[in-house]
Amino acid sequence: MILKVQPDSSMTVKMVVLPLQPTANLYVDSCWLSSPIVQLGQALEFTLSIQNSSDKDAENVPVRLMLNGTQKAVTSLNIPAGQKLETTFSFTASESGWQKAAIKIADHPLNFDDDYYFSFEVKEKLRVLSISENTSPYLEALFSKDPFFEFVKSNANGVDYANFRNQDLISLAGSSSNIIWFK
């Protein structure tokens, strides 16, 4: 249903264009871990990139790294106008499983984008399955010496497919090519 509104002749409407006021804003552009595998009790480097979209330098901006609701690291940054700045935090994950993390910055007047949330998994062990006709001595040397890796070899003729869901990494080695699947 469309309503037709009749103009009111007793009112006069005038439009006024207001000039756009530049707004200073800082935001987390991106973040990444230094390693694709996060091990329990091992030091971890975490890098983040913060963008200053203002035409003024941002000085002494507090930046906090929160992990499962606990502050793990804090720093203060000076970010030049219109520039992007990278900084690195180091910390140790003290519990296994999925970790809820957040980067918190404080800038005004725009604060809706001051929190940047992400998650990552900390593993106690990484389960590796090697399936091949002839076991590669290189894969065995790579994974069997480190207690973090739970390395299992399987012959190509006797594969337990139901066990695939329990593996973190599966290596399929044939006579002409190798395929590695990482979950």
Which features does this protein show?
1 helix, 183 residues, Immunoglobulin-like, 2 domains, elongated, 5-stranded mixed beta sheet, mainly beta, 4-stranded mixed beta sheet, 12 strands
Please report the number of helical segments: 1
How many separate structural domains?
Answer: 2
Order of neighbouring strands in the sheet with most strands:
2-8-7-4-5
CATH architecture label of the largest domain: Sandwich
| Helix proportion range | under 10%
Order of helices and strands: EEEEEEEEEHEEE
Count of strand segments: 12
What low-confidence regions span 5 or more consecutive residues with pLDDT below 50?
Answer: none
State the CATH superfamily name of the largest domain. Answer: Immunoglobulins
Q: What would you call the shape? A: elongated
Structural class by helix and strand composition: mainly beta
Tell me the strand percentage band.
over 45%
Please write the CATH class name of the largest domain: Mainly Beta
Terminal CA distance: 53 Å
Largest sheet: 5 strands, mixed
- CATH-derived topology of the largest domain: Immunoglobulin-like
Taking all Cα atoms into account, the compactness measure Rg is 27 Å
Mean pLDDT: 86
